[in-house]
């Protein structure tokens, strides 16, 4: 078995290495034909190239997800080996038993496209105002992708982790550019520098027809996230207020959602009642009115499988997020054997969740910052602006203390942004100055030996607060293709 695996892995390395050379080599021919700003803008207007984040970690690695043992025993075929590797926080399997890492590869492809624009924009002919806009767009794309990669493959940012391994910082289209990892501080300094360039965009507000392009309001929305994670709560509120002054980004009142097309199954008989959002195709959900910047978390398994602890956070009588997005027998979509499992779904097939900055997230960023600054009244006013659009009847949250306000806001954040921000949040909780929000994730599952699940042997797995596994292992194919310039993360606990 080891010999077979080695042969397969080496084939993957050869294929990936060849693919990288082809990918990085061919654009060099195309670069010679880039002459105008409009040509570079066309690269950034290809929304499908940028909006999807292929994300096993967000889908399977947090306490928002649960794979019950009995459900697995009854229908093991619904859960891929990759899903289990991420669900059980493995290191070797994630690094070495998966042929490629879609998140790492796709984000670096986005960075490459941004670098094509940045490298050529000043030499291209065209209108100077458009040039400045396109340049700012490219810097925003690059900064956003580096921020996302840093929050998966590196340790959480803190003073203690400043010299830990960051990312390979690609700034050109040259194939021979170094892939040695910068420090975490250097990585975050690079992101901030890119965001400063992006902020030079001449576009003030989000263009509803082009929500994947940069604007000052989109940048402020992102920076409210950035500063919240950095623990700078004054800056979080400041940037949130700038973003919330948008005239084009609006909260969707879920009381106005209509019923969509129901789907019925037999053996066992189940009818799933969806909202109208489930009938939307990309021509509509790309223009979700809450977006400041268009991005989606994509689950390769097409199934966000909510945990009992997540489901129990919802008021099942009044919360419209539960009514329209939580399906108690949603597993029937996949197999009769998983009929009784919940499924979380917003749009169409359920494989995509909004992950770019939205007005809902910005309100939650601001409310959390206010709560952590010991402003419980202000925090409740802010969070209830969101909650009023999510409940069937008015049920405002109240808090009389800092502790109560933080608890209420974090619960609302988890209800509003399941799967999408939970991994980020668990990581940052571990390095802030408030130990009460630390999270330990525990799995009650079976023994996993490499690729084999032994359903006769129960086993408990744990991801404790502050674990070095907060840095997702880098795929071995990428390390091999870099000729070992890219170093793997260190796991000593």
- How many beta-strand segments? 11
Strand content: 5-15%
Structural Rg:
23 Å
**Silhouette:** globular
The side-by-side strand order for the widest beta sheet comes to 1-6-9
Mean pLDDT: 92
Instruction: Report helical residue fraction.
Output: 40-55%
Low-confidence stretches: 1-30
Largest sheet: 3 strands, mixed
H/E topology pattern? HHEHHHHHHEEHHHEEHEHHEEEHHHHEEH
Number of helix segments? 19
Distance between the termini: 28 Å
- Secondary structure class reads mainly alpha
Topology:
Blueprint: H1 2-31, H2 37-44, E1 52-54, H3 56-60, H4 69-74, H5 81-87, H6 92-96, H7 102-120, H8 128-153, E2 165-168, E3 181-183, H9 184-198, H10 216-230, H11 233-244, E4 263-265, E5 270-272, H12 282-285, E6 296-298, H13 308-311, H14 320-325, E7 326-327, E8 343-344, E9 352-354, H15 359-372, H16 376-387, H17 402-416, H18 422-429, E10 441-449, E11 452-463, H19 476-481
Helix pairs in contact: 2-7, 2-8, 7-8, 8-9, 10-11, 10-15, 11-15, 15-16, 15-17, 16-17
């Amino acid at each position: 078995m080891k010999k077979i695996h080695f042969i397969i892995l080496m084939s993957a390395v050869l294929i990936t290495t060849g693919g990288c050379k082809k990918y990085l080599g061919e654009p060099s021919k195309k670069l010679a034909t880039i002459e105008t700003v409009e040509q570079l803008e066309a690269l950034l207007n290809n929304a499908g190239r940028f909006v999807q984040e292929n994300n096993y970690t967000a889908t399977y690695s947090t306490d928002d997800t649960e794979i019950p043992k009995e459900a697995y025993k009854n229908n093991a075929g619904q859960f891929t080996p990759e899903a289990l590797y991420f669900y059980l926080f493995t290191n070797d399997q994630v690094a070495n038993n998966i042929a490629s890492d879609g998140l790492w590869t796709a984000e670096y492809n986005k960075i490459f496209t941004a670098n094509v624009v940045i490298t050529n924009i000043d030499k291209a002919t065209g209108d100077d105002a458009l040039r400045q806009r396109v340049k700012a767009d490219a810097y925003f794309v690059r900064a956003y992708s580096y921020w996302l990669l840093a929050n998966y493959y590196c340790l959480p940012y803190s003073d203690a982790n400043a010299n830990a391994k960051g990312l390979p910082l690609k700034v050109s289209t040259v194939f021979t550019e170094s892939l040695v990892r910068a420090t975490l501080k250097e990585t975050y300094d690079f992101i901030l520098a890119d965001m400063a360039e992006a902020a030079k965009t001449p576009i003030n507000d989000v263009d509803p027809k082009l929500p994947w392009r940069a604007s000052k309001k989109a940048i402020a929305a992102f920076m409210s996230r950035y500063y919240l994670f950095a623990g700078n709560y004054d800056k979080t509120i400041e940037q949130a207020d700038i973003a919330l002054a948008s005239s084009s980004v609006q909260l969707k009142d879920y009381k106005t959602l209509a019923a969509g097309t129901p789907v019925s199954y037999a053996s066992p008989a189940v009818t799933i009642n969806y909202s109208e959002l489930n009938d939307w195709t990309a021509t509509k959900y790309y223009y979700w009115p809450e977006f400041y910047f268009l991005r989606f978390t994509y689950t390769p398994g097409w199934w966000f499988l909510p945990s009992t602890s997540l489901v129990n956070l919802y008021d099942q009588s009044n919360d419209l997020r539960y009514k329209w997005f939580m399906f108690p027998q949603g597993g029937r979509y996949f197999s009769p054997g998983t009929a009784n499992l919940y499924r979380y779904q917003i749009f169409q097939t359920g494989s995509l969740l909004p992950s770019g900055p939205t007005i809902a997230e910005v309100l939650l960023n601001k409310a959390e910052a206010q709560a952590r600054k010991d402003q419980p009244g202000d925090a409740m006013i802010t969070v209830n602006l969101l909650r009023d659009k999510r409940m069937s009847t008015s049920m405002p949250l109240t808090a009389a203390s800092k502790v109560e306000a933080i608890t209420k806001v974090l619960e609302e954040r988890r209800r509003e942004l399941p799967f999408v921000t939970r991994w980020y949040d668990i990581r940052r909780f571990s390095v802030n100055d408030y130990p009460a929000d630390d999270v330990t994730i525990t799995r009650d599952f079976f023994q996993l030996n490499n690729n084999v699940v032994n359903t006769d042997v129960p086993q408990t797995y744990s991801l404790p607060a502050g674990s070095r596994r907060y840095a997702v292992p880098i795929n071995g194919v990428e390390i091999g293709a870099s000729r070992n310039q890219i170093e793997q993360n260190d796991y000593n606990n």
